[in-house]
Amino acid sequence: MRIPTFPDVLRANNTLRRYLAPTPLRSALGVFIKHENVQPTGAFKVRGGLNLLAGLKAQGIVGYSTGNHAQSLAYAAAIFDVPCVIVMPVNPNPTKANAVRSLGAELVEAGANFDEARQHAVDLAKERGLRLVSAADEPDIIAGVATAYLELFQQQPDIDTVIVPAGSGSGAAAACLVAAAVAPTCEIIAVQSAQSPAAHDSWRAEEIVDRPNKTVAEGLATGSGFELPQHILRRHLTDFVLVDDAAIRHAQWVMLRDAQTLAESAGAAPLAAYLAEPDRFRDKKVALVCTGANASEAEIRDTVYRG
Ligand SMILES: *Cc1c(COP(=O)(O)O)cnc(C)c1O
Fold it and tell me: Which residues are in the Tryptophan synthase beta chain-like PALP domain (predicted)?
């Protein structure tokens, strides 16, 4: 597999500026928050989908996702006029499922979880001759996602630490690529849920491992590590931490109450990691990436009720 490079990121940035405005970096809660929650589709993944489809010649694509990767592909497929099939685990987040349908993609519900949906997508790609799009083993997706970090370091060049939520690890890998080129002393810390630790454990073990996948944070819900992001993370990532789902839900509430920001659970995980270790981040200039806003209605009600 090709490893994306910093020049790939610069090219992606040229491509994406035709389709996306830079997202704000706001100061709140004593940190900087990179607001990918205000992207069209409500999550950073749109950067990856657009960059992939901008350079792709295919009859059609098939992706698998718990939601935001799906919306990204559907959004980009509509812009580039490419047929798009999305496989989601059965009973998907209705907000995300409806968004995919309304973007004009064909939605197939199959499998009890992310990993079963992935197998179904592999089969569909063979059957129908579609280009299977991996959630993360795609250099053009990582280069596209990395433009968020290019913006971040342009907006605030002297950040000490960036905390990035990880599911497949593409976002954290993207942050590593950019930091290595433009801010080599900046620490990149990835965070996943303790209820779905596959990316974290793969990084620690220095090999791809499978783990139980029980988190409520859809964006962090993967049952195994992904080769390409793990390869990049092994070289450049400073640290990888785990937080409990309960701490993520609490952070989601704090984002809403104190930063006027609706984050989905995954988008609040960096704040949970930050709040978990106050001593570690004292006197540091920290940026948290609020990766997405696509909480279901039930999740929003539950977060507010518990808060
Ligand atoms: C996908 C996603 C993540 C995790 O990103 P990866 O690149 O898969 O590690 C985090 N937050 C949100 C909102 C997501 O959609």
Answer: 20-292
Residue of 168, 233, 289, 290 to test ligand 1 pocket, by largest number of atoms within 8 Å of CB: 168
Q: What are the pLDDT digits (tens) for 62-108?
A: 999 877 899 999 999 999 999 999 999 999 888 889 999 999 999 99
CB 75 within 8 A of CB 50: yes
Distances (CA, A) of 131 to 86, 114, 227: 12, 19, 19
Question: What angle (nearest 5°) sits at the alpha carbon of residue 149, between those of residues 97 and 300?
Answer: 35
Measured by CA distance, the residue closest to atom 10 of ligand 1 is 219
Backbone angles phi, psi at 287, to 5 degrees: -115, 130
Query: Which residue of 38, 39, 68, 177 sits with most ligand 1 atoms within 8 Å of its CB, as the best mutation to test the pocket?
Result: 68
What pTM was computed for the model?
0.96
